[in-house]
Amino acid sequence: xxxxxxxxxxxxxxxxxxKDLLRFRCVCKSWRSLFQDEGFIRKHTTHAPSMFLLAANWxxxxxxxxxxxxxxxxxxxxxxxxxxxxxxxxxxxxxxxIGHCDGLFCLELQDTSLAVWNPALRELTKVPRIDQQQxxxxxxxxCYDHSIQDHKIVLMPLKNCSKAHVLTLKSSVSRMIDFxxxxxxxxxxxxxxxxxxxxxxxxxxAHESTIENGENILSFSVVSETxxxxxxxxxxxxxxxxxxxxxxxxxxxxANYCHDMVVWCADHEKEDKGRIKSWRKILRLTASDIxxxxxxxxxxxxxxxxxxxxxxxxxxxxxxxxxxxxxxxxLEKDTxxxxxxxxxxxxxxxxxxxxxxxxxxxx
Length: 363
What we know:
Structural class: mainly beta
Largest sheet: 5 strands, antiparallel
Number of strands: 27
Mean pLDDT: 81
Number of helices: 5
Helix content: 10-25%
Radius of gyration: 21 Å
Low-confidence stretches: none
């Protein structure tokens, strides 16, 4: 049998799940070396299927779980991050997700220290403290800087400070940079920023009179390490996500007994690799819309997660009859289908789903 060309072998292996690649490292030295190659790892991420991290806020014991989503089924995989401390493995019961990039999650631990976790590789590594500073009460961004081939963490104060921290992980270099703090303007309660291209975005909260030119979003350039303010859509939106590679903002607007969900999508400057150019409204979803697609009476609903590549929305709905149900909303077809969560923990309105891809990226 004629051997396949190595380039063709690489193309085939780039479509193989991470769990299988980990076993294939034992096949030969060339494969083991290939799986550590930066170019192959990046190629593999373009083919990797979507996964979800489920962070439940009201369990008796707080756990992070990874889930697969295929064929309208959300299925839990029982994986927990572990920290090897003094030879003993300890599960992280009080870890919170504060950012993710390239299949890696940045976690804030119970003692306010930071860690980076790859669920696919089951690797969790503590990040050295930044000048012994506590991270609680700060807003955090997690990103990859292609110009230096290293991941970065940026930490910002809530208010009344003109400096922020930037930490590059592999080099463990920490430095202070200028932060353009504005009077009476605060970052929203969510800690993590949303990475799009080479920018991280955070929503701002402020009284209308204090928002300059409608600039209610804070941005951070990953490469130049500079902050800027930019304009978001109308309304006091609660959530920023990534939809088909673009930043999207989700508003909640009061209508009768239930909030409407309004989704905006940003158009980005292609030359600037992420800077926002304009906004367009792509969806207004009401309780009546959901009730027409189902047989249940809706009490409340919210965006559960976004499937970035396919442009699907997962909507968590609380019904009067049977409690919480997860639905898949197709933006192109304007249809809703119920998601099977019977293999998963019974969802709560405060639970958090984050899409990610299983990759070989390691820190």
